[in-house]
Write a structure and sequence with these properties.
The protein has 314 residues and is α/β, with parallel strands linked by helices. It has two domains: 3-50; 55-307, 2-enoyl-CoA Hydratase, Chain A, domain 1, CATH 3.90.226.10. It has helices at 3-25, 30-48, 53-61, 68-75, 117-122, 130-145, 163-167, 170-182, 198-202, 223-231, 237-244, 248-253, 272-284, 288-293, 295-307, and strands at residues 77-82, 94-101, 104-111, 150-156, 188-197, 209-213, 217-219, 259-261. The radius of gyration is 21 Å and the shape is globular. Keywords: ATP-binding, Coiled coil, Cytoplasm, Fatty acid biosynthesis, Fatty acid metabolism, Ligase, Lipid biosynthesis, Lipid metabolism, Nucleotide-binding, Transferase.
């Protein structure tokens, strides 16, 4: 929990105590309660409009933050999960399958974090191995064949760096996804819902549009890794987060992403249903049929998007 959230919770608890005391003892404390409620409102507005990059990094990693499956079950209907890469085995760090966005069939591919330690171990903390990326590519090619749009949910610290992953071609699997997504003949939307780390995130982010939730982060590597390389001190993560420009607001300013999706006050975990509704409404605005009907033009725009992505700093 953020330090600022503790202050908000303490003030909220104080207001509830006064309300209960007022009801139980039949004492009129309405003026004091109103004063504290005004103070709470101003505190929330101040805190949530001035989050530091480190605060946003903390929010993006919170165990309470909604996972990809939380959104999938709320945004889409009739989701059917597919398993396996047809080469080695299934990778539970990546969830993929078919669902319906209202009445339109879509392919959904997502990096899935756990909601507790046991699930995180099962999901490998959303760090995919090569078979996860190959499963993703299999589903993308299937989507291309049946003319289904692809919607990706990105939430990973990065691709798994273990020896077994390297032995099975981790670098090649990520690179192939980048290449194939750039020429995939179906519309692609990628949404960074939490932590978008390194090539592990990029392997699901070559898209016609990249969106980020308001408090998500997106970076070339983790701030801890950056601090270890630059200063030989991983404890300087706060300084690294500020320098790296990892927030959605910074990245939008550099023309790397296309849209920032507003979160409920305090973050997506405060109201998952509302967050899912917002994501769904944004997806329904995408002209998928037009993008599909004019796929060569769509591919040209995708190519030019990545040729021009980013900004030079003077």
């Amino acid at each position: 929990m953020l330090e600022s959230e503790k202050k908000i919770n303490e003030l909220s608890n104080r207001i509830e105590e006064l309300k209960q005391f007022s009801n139980t003892k039949e004492v009129d404390l309405s003026l004091e309660i109103t004063r504290l409620e005004d103070k709470l409102k101003k505190l929330k507005e101040s805190v949530y409009s001035n989050l530091s990059p480190m605060d946003k990094l903390t929010l993006s990693r919170m165990l309470e933050r909604p996972t990809a499956l939380d959104y999938i079950e709320r945004v889409f209907d009739s989701f059917i999960e597919f398993h396996g890469d047809r080469y080695y085995k299934d990778d539970s760090a990546i969830v993929g399958g078919i669902g319906k966005l209202n009445s339109m069939p879509v392919t959904i591919i997502a990096q899935q974090k756990g909601t507790n330690m046991n699930e995180n171990i099962k999901r490998n903390f959303a760090m995919p191995r090569p078979e996860g990326y190959r499963k993703s590519l299999r589903l993308m090619k299937q989507a291309e064949k049946f003319k289904r749009p692809v919607i990706c949910f990105v939430d990973t610290p990065g691709a798994y760096p273990g020896m077994d992953a390297e032995e099975r071609g981790q670098g090649e699997a990520v690179a192939r996804n980048l290449m194939e997504m750039s020429i995939l003949k179906t519309p692609i939307i990628s949404i960074v819902i939490g932590e978008g780390g390194s090539g592990g995130a990029l392997a699901l982010s070559v898209a016609d549009e990249i969106w980020m939730l308001e408090h998500a982060v997106y970076s070339v590597l983790s701030p801890e890794g950056f601090a270890s390389i630059l200063w030989k001190d991983s404890s300087k993560v706060k300084e690294a987060a500020a320098i790296m420009k990892i927030t959605a607001q910074d990245i939008k300013g550099y023309n790397i992403i296309d849209k920032i999706i507003e979160e409920p006050k305090g973050g997506a975990h405060k109201d998952v249903d509302q967050m899912a509704k917002t994501i769904k409404n944004e997806l329904l605005k995408v002209p998928f049929k037009s993008l599909s009907d004019n796929i060569e033009e769509t591919l040209d725009k995708r190519y030019n998007k990545y040729r021009a992505i980013g900004s030079f700093l003077e």
